[in-house]
Design brief:
This protein is of the alpha+beta class. It has one domain: T-fold, CATH 3.10.520.10. Helix content is about 30%, strand content about 20%. It has 6 helices and 9 strands; from the N terminus they run βααααββββββααββ. A 7-stranded antiparallel beta sheet has the order 1-2-3-6-7-8-9. Strand 8 and strand 9 form a beta hairpin.
Length: about 240
């Protein structure tokens, strides 16, 4: 998937669950990677496969993308300025959510899955403590600026400090998104957190207000000057 993927299962024999989860991520990568010439999305972009003839998974992701575009006022759009389709902004969260269901189906309730900052978790860690997530300082990625305890909620971070300027404002593709360098969103599940985090980042400084207005979501944005802006209920996730 072009990024590190971490799967931790606490307790019991997790080998089968881990093998299944990573096989699933490999299959998602093979289907959705825009860097693989033989992937399904690449064949669609080269007009070798019509979108209406795409797989059920591809059509599911396209439908999610259209729904997110409508719900975010067009700030989420998988159609790039050159006309090609890039579902990367929603596939990660979708895949992590699905992988979580696969781990749970194998009888595990205590697990943690992280694909490039899109995180799902359940239960407790090996020490019996709640899972925690560290928000990195985008100016010093080896430093954690905030520790949160999502308690089973989904977490997603969008930003430019690791992969560069890969997110754009669909309403003004030439605009440099320089006001915000990262935004972390806590939502009902990882897919919901992911799709709204991407859109919120594209909104720039308005993104954190957009998250504030969403019932059941909280956010933590870090601006270009290093100032953090939090939604009103975010602090509830900073204590055990």
């Amino acid at each position: 998937m072009g990024m590190p993927v971490e799967v931790v299962v606490a307790g019991g024999d997790a080998r089968a669950a881990l093998e299944d989860a990573f096989a699933y991520f490999a299959a998602v990568d093979a289907r959705f990677s825009t860097y693989k010439d033989d992937s399904e999305i690449s064949r669609i972009n080269r007009k070798l496969l019509a979108p209406e003839a795409a797989s059920g998974e591809m059509r599911e992701v396209f439908a999610l993308a259209e729904r997110t575009k409508a719900e975010t006022g067009g700030y989420f759009d998988i159609r790039r300025p050159d006309g090609t389709l890039d579902p990367s902004g929603i596939v990660k969260g979708w895949a992590v959510k699905n992988a979580s269901a696969r781990v749970r189906a194998r009888g595990h309730e205590d697990f943690f899955i992280n694909a490039g900052g899109d995180i799902a978790m359940s239960g407790a860690n090996a020490a019996g403590a709640p899972w925690s997530v560290g928000i990195k300082n985008p100016f010093r990625p080896d430093e954690i600026v905030k520790v949160i305890y999502p308690r089973g909620k989904g977490v997603a971070t969008s930003g430019s400090y690791i992969r560069g300027a890969h997110i754009y404002n669909p309403h003004n593709p030439a605009e440099e998104l320089a006001d915000v360098v990262s935004i972390t969103v806590i939502g009902p599940d990882v897919l919901e957190a992911d799709r709204y985090a991407t859109a919120a980042f594209a909104m720039g400084e308005k993104g954190i207000a957009f998250i504030e207005a969403l019932p059941g979501f909280e956010g933590y944005a870090i601006g270009a000057r290093g100032t953090a802006t939090l939604t009103s209920g975010f602090h509830a996730y900073t204590v055990i």
